[in-house]
Each structure stands twice: as C-alpha cells, then as structure tokens.
Amino acid sequence: MAYLAKILLYPIKSLDGVEAEQATVLPSGPLQYDREFAIVDAQGRFVNAKRHLKIHSLRANFSLTERVIHLQLPPSNLYQVFHLEQEQEQLAASLSGFFGFSVKLRQNTNMGFPDDTNSPGATVISTATLKEVASWFPGVSVEEIRRRLRANIEIGGVPAFWEDRLFTDSGETVSFQVGDVQFLGVQPCQRCVVPTRDSYLGEAYPNFQKIFLQQRQATLPSWVAASRFNHFYKLSVNTRLPASEAGKTIKVGDNIEILQLQS
Known about the structure:
By secondary structure, the protein is α+β, with helices and mostly antiparallel strands. Helix content is about 15%, strand content about 30%. The strands form five sheets. The chain has a four-stranded mixed sheet with strand order 2-1-10-9. A four-stranded antiparallel sheet has the order 13-12-11-15, with no helix packed on it. A three-stranded antiparallel sheet has the order 5-6-7, with helices on one face. Pfam families: MOSC, MOSC_N.
C-alpha cells in the first residue's frame, strides 16, 4: 500500500532542505515553509542554483519551529545563526559578502516561490524511483539523487515510477488522497540543470542529462500518458490542491490512494 514516507521542505529556495514529520497546506496549495524565502539580486532576479553555481557550497540547517537558520558560508567552517523573521537584513548582508554582490531576502507566506506557479502544490516522487535513478549513475547515492531532485513528498510501498500514475493526458488532473488531504496531480516535472550537478560541490556529472534521457525513455512504464513527454528529461509530479484543503495537515505514515480523474 502506498504511504507517505518522507516530507521534505526547502525554507529558502535553492538552499538545503529539512525533513519534517508533518506539514500544513497553505491556502494557495503549497506546503507551509516550503520555498517561503528566496534570495534575489538588486534587479529582483532569483539568486538560485540554476544561475549561480557557487550556491551549491552553502550549507544550511533550519529549525522550522524556532524560525532559525544555521548557515555555513565557505571558506569558514563555522555556522552563523540568523532568525528568519527578525534578522533578515543581517542574513542578507552575510549572503551578499559570500556572493560578492548585493542580495536581499524576499518572503512570501501565501505561496512561497515555486518554480511552477500554476501548479504550486507539493512535488511528488517515490522512494523506488529515487533508487532506480541512482542506479543509472555509478558513484551517486540515493540520498544524493534525493538532494538533486528536491521533491516535497516521497511515497513508499510502491514500485519505481508509480507517481507517473498521478498525471494523464493534457487538460485532466488525477485526484489522489494523502491522509485526509486531496491533491490534484497535474504533469511530470521538467528538470533543469541543477540535477546534473553534485549537490554539495556543484561539479557536473559527465553526460548526466544524456544518460537520464536514455534511461528515462527505456524505463517509461507502458501505461504512462506518453503525450506528456515531448522529451524525457522529466521526473516527479507537479500538483495543485482544491481550496477546500487549506489548513489541513499531512503526516509521515499517511496512506496514499488514487481517487479519480478530474476534467
């Protein structure tokens, strides 16, 4: 039986994540605290791993309840501690020194800063999929693939690519239940350059995207809605949630069940 094996939240976009035992759905659909903050430059552009390789070397630990980040900025081995509400300017100043240009911290408690603003709900993948993908890349662990793909919800008790059941032909969504919370699976997630790199060092894995494309096509289940794959550099599922689910909570161990297609 499918169940919720892990919840991973990423309080500051592009920085390390934090594992949680439960998470609450925001009115706009995302999980509370996920991508709540983003680092931006003077022009308001995201300072993220897609555009700034250096960000991979930052290490961050979060306390969600205390609203604190412990941040390690190379070359120092020491962690600096900042309150995410009360010390945003001090945090931005330290980050500006690290990047070598002025940055600010932006906050959005309603939606956060998801890549897909049309489907801002939690991204979904299965543990078995992570294990399968790791097997494509000798020397890359399952945990490293997890860090590269940065999904929010991880499903246990199912075979690899089970989450591909959570989308269908364009224009329809798939309704599924996590505990008491209804999600709508929308589409496979198009990947960017970030998964090609070591999540700690930023070093590129040789031919990562080529290998991924070949293996994803070769292992694509026969029942998948193939029309959603104009290319095969896609993995995990983007979701959105009905407004009725706002304020509800998902918990590790919750059962997961596919309900029906939604037009």
